[in-house]
Amino acid sequence: MFDRNDQQRETRAWAREFAEREVLPRAAAMDESGVYDSAVIGAMFDAGLMGLLVPERYGGRGLSALDYVTAVEELARCDASTSLVMCIHSSLVTALIAGYASDEIKDAVLSDLATKKVGAFALTELNPSEPTRAEDVGDAFSANGTKMYITNGPVADLLVLFAVTGVTESERDGKVVKRDEVSALLVDTDHSTGLARENIEGRMGLRAAPVGKLVFKDVSVPSSHVVGDRGAGFKMAMKTLDAGRIGAAAMAVGVGQAALEAARSYATTRVTGGRPIAKFQAVQMMVAEAATRLEAARALTYQAASAHDRGEPVSEIAAMAKLFASETASFVASKSLQVHGGSGVVGTLHPVERYFRDARVMEIIEGTSEIQKLVVAGHELRG
Predict the structure, then answer these.
(1) pLDDT band at 2 (very low <50, low <70, confident <90, very high)
(2) Cα–Cα distance measured from residue 39 to residue 43, given in angstroms and rounded to the nearest whole number
(3) I want to staple 183 with a disulfide (CB 3.0 to 4.6 A). Which of 126, 152, 157, 165 is the partner?
(4) Annotated catalytic, 366?
């Protein structure tokens, strides 16, 4: 089980102060415009938030997973889009490079990722039946294809691109089976002729986060930019996503916390019939159930982070945390909206409308609830 120490309490206080000062005042405007304020990313770099998981030797803070999720939670409490920017950069990009890249790549990019360069995890295909391919042309790969729904993609300085780099053959039941070889390639967007990027607009939730489509047309990637072993891309991606789901769970907890606080505030100040609506039993029941579920989601998320810190396998517990926390965030936001009544659906009056939209999207990103259930069932029913 987790045990919060002075370091984690300090991290929470520091992250909350930062989020309330730098993020909260910009959150509503960013959501309304659907445009992320680049000044927030700069402030996160300056504060050290983008390098929380980067080892100290590379200029990061080298903090624990439990420290990390408390910081993510505080950012999400003020703005889920901002926490998503940090999560993808940290728990996917920097974590994968720190865990699998050669010393040469680590020395070349980890310091920049901790202090000034934004990373993106280019995994999802526009059309899975036509995956992005990177042909080996000697001392480089030539990448062609389209990636979709890539968070940080439109603004990233560095991409971890997962592409088919060849075909492997193996024998099964006396037959030769061919399978695509997927590798992880590090792409420097400043030196990538042929890369086109566009922001995906009109999203229901997490509207301010820079999420986009990446089109690769004969993009040259040096052979030395393979992260980890060639052909190990898929396995590395799955392992990284296992841990990344803990960050997604923390995001959901943060959104749920914001929604609960909004419900409490409204219930204690909204007066009808001569008394606050917090005195009505129906409102009390909604707030009580929301608070209870949220505390359970937080405990499961922290337990998953602590397991990761201990070096234990986290595939199942991370999926549990992401599943329960995201669905809890939706539940809490829904109850908060109900407490607000008609005024809750007007975004210019109360932020709960934004929390409701953001929470619902949490059940889809980083693997849908159905995928998380399959992961858990796979562990529980393993023969």
Answers:
(1) low
(2) 6
(3) 165
(4) yes
Torsion-angle region of 187 (φ positive above 0: left; ψ -120 to 50: alpha; else: beta): beta
Return the pLDDT at 337: 97
- Domain formed by 120-230, architecture: Beta Barrel (2.40)
Taking a C-beta distance cutoff of 8 angstroms, is the pair 69, 246 a contact? yes
Q: Name the active-site residue from 73, 74, 327, 366.
A: 366
Which tokens sit at 36?
């992320």
Cβ proximity of 143 and 116 under 8 Å: no
Architecture of domain 235-380: Up-down Bundle (1.20)
pLDDT digits (tens, 9 = 90+) for 112-170: 999 999 999 999 999 999 999 999 999 999 999 999 999 999 999 999 999 999 988 77
Q: Where are the domains of the chain?
A: 6-118, 120-230, 235-380
Helices (H) and strands (E) in the chain, counts: 12, 10
Q: Which two tokens stand for residue 125?
A: 């295909």
Q: Which fold has domain 6-118?
A: Butyryl-Coa Dehydrogenase, subunit A; domain 1 (1.10.540)
Amino acid at 101: A
Degrees, nearest 5: CA angle 348-353-354: 90
The reply to whether 120-230 and 235-380 are identical in fold is no
